[in-house]
Write a structure and sequence with these properties.
Blueprint (H helix, E strand, L loop, with lengths): L18 H30 L6 H4 L9 H16 L1 H7 L6 H20 L6 H26 L49
Helix pairs in contact: 1-3, 1-5, 3-6, 4-6, 5-6
Amino acid sequence: MPPRRRKPPRAGALTELPPLKIIRSILLLQLFYYVAAFVLILFTTLVLGQKFSLALIFDWNSVRGDNTIGWTVGFLWVIVGFITVIPILLLVSRSKLVPDFALTIHLIHLIITSFYTKAIPTNLLWWSLEAASAALMVSLGVWACRYRELQPISFGTIPPKKPAVDGNESHVRGGQGGRDVDAGPSYEMVNVRGDENV
C-alpha cells in the first residue's frame, strides 16, 4: 500500500500564528502596557509631590472624577493606550489582528484590576476611560499596521545609478529583470499637420 500524501497546511494557519507566539506576544504587550503605566504614573506623582503606590496602577478606585489625581491617572491611562500602539505595530504582523490583541490587553487589565481590588469595577469614569483607551489603541494600531502593509516591498537591492551617456536622463522600463534600460527618446506632444486650424 503506497504511503498517503499529506495535505499541505493552509496558508496562514499554524505557520503564521502558533499558540506559543500568540501567548508570548500577549505577555510582551501586557508587560509593556504596565511598564509604560508605571513609568508615567511614577513620574507624574513625583512631579506633583504625591505619594506613589501600586494602587494608582491596579486599583480602579484611583480613577476618580472628584480630585485632580484621579483625573490625571485617568488621562495617563489613555496616554498609555496611545503609547502601546508602538509595540503593537512591532509585534502584530497583520492589521486584522490588532483589535484582538488590543482588546486582550484591556481584558487582562480588567481581570488584574478586579483581582487586586476583589471587586469588579463600578466606576463609570474608569469604564469610559478604558473604552477610550481601547478605541484609541485599536484605531491607531490598525492604521499603523495598514500603513506598514501598504509600503512598497524592498528586496534589499538598490540598482546602481548609471550616468546618462548623451545628457538625457535614463529611463527604467519593466520586463528587463530590473536592469536600467535606456527607453530612447522622450515622447512629447508635438504639432501634427492640421492642428493649426483647430
